Amino acid sequence: MSLPSLPAVDTLPGDALGAGPDEGVAAGAVVLRLGASRYAVDMADVAEVAQLPRVTRVPRSAAWLLGVANWRGRVLPVLDLRPLLATDPTPLASSARVVVLAREDVVVGVVAEAVPGVYSGDLTDPLPAPPTVTGEAAALVTGQVSDRTGPLAVLDAAAVLALRDRVDRRRGGTGPA
C-alpha cells in the first residue's frame, strides 16, 4: 500500500521566506499551535511545513506517535506532541499541518493544529519555562519568548527528534527498541 506524497505548503530554506538563494535559512522560528498554546521551533531545524498527509497508524505504539507517512519517498514518523505537552488532543481540522524537523539524518514530522506564522526574534536566550511545565513537557520545552500576541513556549528540536529513539522498531512492537 503506497501513501500519497506530501503536498508542499512552504519550503523554508532559501528564497521561500524572502531570503535570496545565497542567504540560507532565515533566522527566527516557525510558530505552531497545539491546543490553546503556541510553540516556537527554530527555523534552522524545519525542513518543510505541509498539509497533514494521510497517516498510517502503527499498532501498539505510544499515544504521541500518530503514525507514519510518506515524505518525499521516505517513511516519516509523525508525532503528536499534545499528549506529552499535557494538551487535550482534539480532532484535527483542515488547517492542521505537519512540521518536518530535520537534523543530520534524523527526520520527524510534528502535527500542528495550525501554523499561524513565524517568530522573527531570537530563540538563543529564552526566559525560563513556567513552573507549570513539568514532566515530559519540561524535557521538550527549553523556555519561553513573547511576541505581540503573547507567550510562546520554545520547543527543543533535539529533544523532539530524540523521541524517535523511543519508538519500538521491532515487528510486533512488544518490547524496547
- Quick one: CATH class? Mainly Beta
- In the CATH hierarchy, what is the architecture at level 2? Beta Barrel
Largest sheet, order of strands side by side? 1-4-7-8-6-5
Structural class: mainly beta
What are its keywords?
OB fold (Dihydrolipoamide Acetyltransferase, E2P); 2 helices; 38% strand; 177 residues; six-stranded mixed beta sheet; mainly beta
Question: Can you walk me through this structure?
Answer:
With 177 residues, the protein is mainly beta. It has one domain (8-166): Beta Barrel (OB fold (Dihydrolipoamide Acetyltransferase, E2P)), CATH 2.40.50. 7% of the residues lie in helices and 38% in strands. It has two helices and eleven strands. It has a six-stranded mixed β-sheet. A five-stranded mixed β-sheet has the order 9-2-3-11-10. The longest helix has 6 residues, at 135-140. The radius of gyration is 16 Å and the shape is globular. 33% of the residues are buried. The model is unreliable at 1-25 (pLDDT under 50).
